[in-house]
Design a protein that fits this description.
The structure holds two protein chains of two kinds.
Chain A: H1 2-8, H2 29-40, H3 43-56, H4 58-80, H5 94-97, H6 104-110, H7 113-132, H8 136-146, H9 150-161, H10 168-179, H11 185-193, H12 208-232, H13 237-245, H14 250-275, H15 282-288, H16 294-297, H17 300-310, H18 314-341
Chain B: H1 2-34, H2 39-42, H3 57-65, H4 69-98, H5 105-117, H6 122-131, H7 139-143, H8 149-160, H9 164-172, H10 177-188, H11 190-206, H12 209-214, H13 223-234, H14 250-284
Helix pairs in contact in B: 1-14, 3-14, 4-8, 4-11, 4-13, 9-10, 11-14, 13-14
Chain lengths: ~350, ~290
């Protein structure tokens, strides 16, 4: 799959070798000789050799410095900041001076019924998304591939990729026009045209998860189909001709040729999706939810935001966040292992 | 038999995508047309095609209830400034990291990739930003999302694929790394840079979480946050921001949605090609 996409966009073949373990090729003559010399003599010499080299490459290091500082400030310092979960944070004293309290906040979290409610919501919504939103782009890509008119296909693609570029705030604005009980299109058609009961998706807790899945389906399906569409174009067209000669209809060709052809892509994306299980989408939920639907719609991320930023219970919210980060780490490493065991290059 | 099936399939397929395109595009159309109508015309029929007598009253309504100009200007500053800053530091970083002979390159890559595996979470980040005095500044909206690991790796991959001879001959003539990057590498990397510029600009324009967390004062807010507050208040539901906003009428809200959407809608048809290319390159390493 990777090979085909690579050739599609004319990315050089060195492309896939970005992993940190990739073998280092020798650089311009002098530099690599310095490394050799350093390795042969003692440790001190080696350090000195590395320092010499760094000073030789100082311009490159100056170039990469802003990026490294960025990660330090916005990723590594906050990573250290998780100690807040084990302290009683006094915001005026700062993190360092605040007293340690051990696992008090975790006891609070794990005995809090609200925590289990948001954890449950997160998992249920995530699985619901997995069941509906994951397969949709596969179907769309297959059908799009069967569309033979090139021009109309391009117009279709342009339209269905659009929602990816609209923010969830904009989409929240659109959903009011579509689903409002007073003047939304859907309810007007349901009530006035079809004489049915109005459908309350936005503020009825029983319907809110459907609302989340529906809006995500609307936003993500077209865009996510791109990667499958690319995988489809690498299938050998002769296979279809052969199947046609054998009298196979379109559905049989799709079942026996198309699907197996994109199966590797599907399985990798599925594994990655499972690795990101807890990431239901803060922006989506936050823009669409309201107090009426908290019971079914509140997720870990929105919970952390409300408890932490709005109620100011920093330590408690950090403990919830730390729990989430640790579970996510385990899931991602597991997913990576699964990808590797399928004979694909891992991600880490 | 097969021919019949073919026609049936074609009808099904075109109907499916016709409906798909309609469902995708109509809500956007509806809100734009709604912003050009009076509310009574908007509610006349469920489907709107064109306003019978276009009016800008919704925009006047919006401007009279909200200060839209300041947020709009803030959004433009953040989009342009953020894009320029992001692109500069990511281009330099990606270029340096693309050099195989860079000392400690594997260690630096691990340093960067670890951040994709584990995060400290929302609250520690908030406290860091707060303690740096960046709360309620436009600068935080430029600095905090400045590096995107995914884009950084795409750029690095691209630079690594450029022929070494480019650099070697320039070095021979005494050019330093900055000169090589600026005069030789950037010009031949325009396809990838254009893609990243577009993605970054759209990301900044649409940024919601950073303004929400770090810059939510009324006088400093961006367009997305104003829109969020209008929508939240207009739903007659709670406003997370506890803003002192007065409720904006429905057509005024549609005008606000339109103003936030239009810049993207205008550039989108021309840029879609780049976006698709970007995701293709990105999909090499998911």
């Amino acid at each position: 799959m990777r090979g085909s996409i690579t050739s599609d966009v004319k990315t050089p073949t060195t492309a896939s070798r970005w992993t940190p373990t990739a073998p280092r090729a020798a650089g311009p003559g002098k530099d690599s000789m310095m490394v050799h010399a350093g390795a042969m003599s003692g440790r001190l010499n080696k350090t000195r050799a590395i320092l010499t080299q760094i000073s030789k490459q100082r311009l490159l290091f100056i170039m990469v410095l802003p990026v490294l500082v960025y990660y330090l400030i916005f990723n590594y310092v906050p990573m250290y900041g998780v100690v807040i979960a084990f302290k009683q944070l006094r915001i005026t004293q700062g993190i360092l001076a605040s007293p340690w309290v051990g696992f008090v906040h975790f006891v609070d979290v794990f005995t809090d019924a609200r925590f289990y409610r948001v954890l449950g919501n997160t998992l249920v919504i995530s699985l619901y998304q997995l069941a509906i939103v994951f397969p949709a782009p596969i179907i769309v890509a297959i059908l799009l591939n069967e569309m033979k008119g090139l021009k109309i296909r391009r117009v279709t693609q342009t339209i269905i990729y659009l929602p990816r570029f609209l923010s969830w705030t904009i989409i929240a604005g659109l959903t009011i026009n579509v689903f409002s009980l007073d003047y939304g299109i859907v309810n007007r058609v349901l009530v006035e045209q079809l004489g049915m009961q109005p459908l309350n998706l936005m503020t009825d807790p029983r319907n809110f998860r459907h609302f989340l899945v529906l809006t995500l389906l609307w936003r993500a399906t077209g865009w996510s189909s791109i990667i499958y569409f690319a995988a489809l174009s690498s299938i050998n067209p002769e296979l279809y001709d052969a199947a046609h000669v054998d009298g196979a209809g379109r559905w049989r060709s799709i079942w026996h040729i198309t699907l197996p052809g994109i199966l590797p892509t599907i399985s990798i994306l599925l594994i990655l999706r499972i690795g990101n299980m807890l990431d239901v989408g803060f922006e989506q939920v936050f823009n669409l939810y309201n107090p009426a639907v908290l019971r079914t719609g509140d997720i870990l991320d929105t919970f952390v935001f409300r408890i932490g930023i709005q109620e100011g219970r920093y330590s408690y919210a950090t403990a919830v966040g730390l729990f989430r980060s640790v579970v996510a780490l385990v899931l991602i490493l597991g997913a990576n292992k699964a990808v590797k065991s399928m004979g694909q290059e891992g991600f880490f | 038999m097969i021919a019949k099936q073919e026609i049936g399939f074609k009808v099904f397929n075109y109907t499916f995508f016709g409906l798909f395109a309609f469902v995708t595009f109509y809500p956007v159309w509806d809100v734009i047309m709604g912003s050009l109508m009076t509310f009574s015309e908007y509610t006349r029929s469920p489907i709107k095609i064109f306003p019978t007598s276009p009016t800008l009253s919704a925009y006047r309504l919006l401007l009279s209830t909200q200060d839209v100009i300041t947020p709009f200007v803030n959004s433009v500053i953040v989009t342009v400034g953020g894009m320029a800053f992001s692109l500069s530091i990511m281009t330099m970083g990606a270029y340096a990291l693309s050099k195989r002979y860079l000392v400690a390159r594997p260690a630096l890559m691990i340093y960067i990739l670890i951040t994709m595996l584990f995060s400290g979470g929302l609250i520690p980040l908030y406290i860091v930003v707060r303690s740096m005095g960046l709360l309620n500044t436009l600068a935080v909206l430029i600095l905090r999302p400045a590096v995107n690991t995914f884009y950084l790796i795409i750029m690095r991959t691209y630079f690594a694929g450029l022929p070494d001879s480019l650099e070697e001959s320039a070095k021979m003539e005494g050019a330093n790394d900055f000169q090589i990057l600026l005069r030789l590498v950037v010009p031949v990397s325009m396809p990838i840079l254009a893609t990243i510029i577009l993605f970054t600009a759209v990301d900044r324009w649409n940024d919601f979480i950073n303004p929400l967390l770090f810059n939510n004062r009324v006088e400093k807010r961006t367009l997305q946050l104003l829109l969020y507050q209008i929508i939240a208040a207009g739903r007659m539901e709670f406003s997370e921001m506890r803003s002192e906003l007065q409720v904006t009428p429905a057509t005024g809200r549609m005008a606000a949605v339109t103003i936030s959407t239009l810049p993207i809608l205008c550039v989108y048809p021309f840029l879609q090609k780049h976006f698709v290319k970007g995701v293709m390159i990105g999909s090499i390493k998911g």
